[in-house]
Amino acid sequence: MQIKDLKLINFRNYERANLQFNDHLNLIIGKNGMGKTNLVEAIYVLALTKSFRTNNDSILIKKNQENLKIAAQIKDEINTKEYELLLTKEGKKVKINRTDISRLSDYISKINVILFSPNDLKIIKDTPSIRRKMLNIEISQLDNVYLKYLQDYNKLIKQRNAYLKTMFNSSNNISKEYLAVLTNKLIDIGFEIYEKRKEYIKKINDNIADLFFKIANLKGLEIYYETDYEGVTKKGLEELYTKSLDKDILFGQTHLGIHHDDIVFKLNDHNLKEYGSEGQQKNAIIAFKLAEIPIFYKKRKEYPILILDDLFSELDNEKANNILKLLNGKVQTFITTTELDNINEKYLQDIKIFTIKDEQIEEVTYEK
Ligand SMILES: Nc1ncnc2c1ncn2[C@@H]1O[C@H](COP(=O)(O)OP(=O)(O)OP(=O)(O)O)[C@@H](O)[C@H]1O
Ligand SMILES: [Mg+2]
Predict the structure, then answer these.
(1) Distances (CA, A) of 124 to 93, 205, 322
(2) Under CATH, domain 1-112+302-368 is a member of which superfamily?
(3) Residue of 38, 58, 314, 354 to mutate, ligand 1, most atoms within 8 A of C-beta
(4) What is the CB < 6 Å shell around ligand 1?
(5) pLDDT in tens, 137-194
(6) Which CATH number is correct for 128-301, 3.10.20.340, 1.20.1050.90, 1.10.3720.10, 3.30.720.210?
(7) Claim: this prediction has a pTM higher than 0.85
(8) Which distant-in-sequence residues (6+ apart) come within 8 Å of 153 by Cβ?
């Protein structure tokens, strides 16, 4: 899919912007703080209804303004649709071809975006919750049932934990049957999520080693899925939950389940978290993101939109140019950078360049 144009009203530092994009490569060039990330953030917010760098939506609205609007025409193999996201005091609203879409989970899988941002470089070192969040965002874009399961699962965990606390506080007369109902539901939905995550990770592993080799010239990268659910039947899980019950009641928390899942990056069986260099960790994350592209293509028959924010400041030039080489020209790509010079000239064909200065975005023609 391709984003043909983008209109912004009061988004971050932009009062108004109206841009027409190239179907292949779009370069966004500007000094630090000019609004490069803001621009790609707008595309991301339109696709996923949330930013990747804040949970506070109101910060996305231009200072001293009350509403924002992001709108774009997005083309796929079949047709072109207009997507809009409005943020006002009353809340967030999304529209497709001017029709309101009331459930966000119905909207989120429509525009597929793969983002790499400097923030992602910490993913391997960070806490498991960050890696789960990455998996959740990616799988939800492909599969809106996954997102619904996830929402149900999180609700169940809250209910179960609340009930565990009630059990702790009331010494008698408390029904274990209700807890068993919640636990069984948790296992059922947890199992669905587990299977979808497992399948996704398997598909990542079909591509990641090859991509990592092409970027970093190292063989043997693999992702491992760590979960309480691996190799256990539903019956077996029920027993594990029963075993864990005393501890669960004591802490008022559910210790078992897919809300503790993790993924581990290993290079020839060494955990990259402890073993890998910073550069290797960065390259592994980028390889992960790129490994997602064919998964999206297989499922959707459409390539996702790829955003590479500040790729060149985070990787050495050779590695970053290796990445450009991997893009097959079919994936619409947005790259932000402070310097055009970083990019190998051979990739500067058939592209659009936008420069940003003083909150104005200008399309410029490339001259050697
Ligand atoms: N709600 C807002 N209203 C007005 N300006 C904002 C708002 N939010 C952020 N900004 C401004 O946007 C600028 C940051 O933009 P952005 O992060 O896109 O910069 P950048 O070009 O990516 O810089 P870098 O090269 O350092 O990554 C800051 O100057 C900040 O003041
Ligand atoms: Mg930036």
Answers:
(1) 34, 16, 21
(2) P-loop containing nucleotide triphosphate hydrolases (3.40.50.300)
(3) 38
(4) 12-13, 30, 32-38, 59, 61-63, 310, 338
(5) 999 999 989 999 999 999 999 999 999 999 998 866 678 899 999 999 999 999 999 9
(6) 1.20.1050.90
(7) yes
(8) 186, 189, 190, 193, 258, 259
